Amino acid sequence: MSAPPNSMRTRLIGFRLCAEMNLKWTLDRTPKRQYPVIKSVELSAGVAQGLAERVYVVQDDGTVRQRDQYLPLRRKIRAVYRAAGDAFGHRVKVRYDDQGWQQFQIATAVRDRITHPKSFLECDIGVEELDTVDRAEEWFRDVYNEFVRVASEHRATHGW
Prior knowledge:
The protein is mainly α. It has helices at residues 6-16, 19-28, 45-51, 73-88, 99-115, 127-158, and strands spanning 54-58, 64-68. The longest helix is centred in the last third of the chain and has 32 residues, at 127-158.
């Protein structure tokens, strides 16, 4: 298999590594206490605060400021699916000990490298890396489908 041109490789990585965007979409639609949702699952205050990726910091002058504190993607994935399982009352089965998770971590490193390159050479993506991204996307798609299955069961059980 021959490698696609560099610009195509970059686009392929962008499209194939949609996991972070899917995860953000999941988080953005997770009901939070401040939204007036009639039927929802509720996250504990600590989990909601942790996933909000914001912290409050007391300054030297005594003022309290809010600032962003982003979770690393790996931690965020673990936290989101654990919180979903707790909220739905049924564990979302995610394998963190298999090749898929390892491939996902490698693909995330590729994504980070091309998103924040230190040199132009770091924008180069090889065929092997594209294959890794494909396997990582497949793993994430399976995880997300498991999430959807558990959420659907929860909705069916609770009549909404």
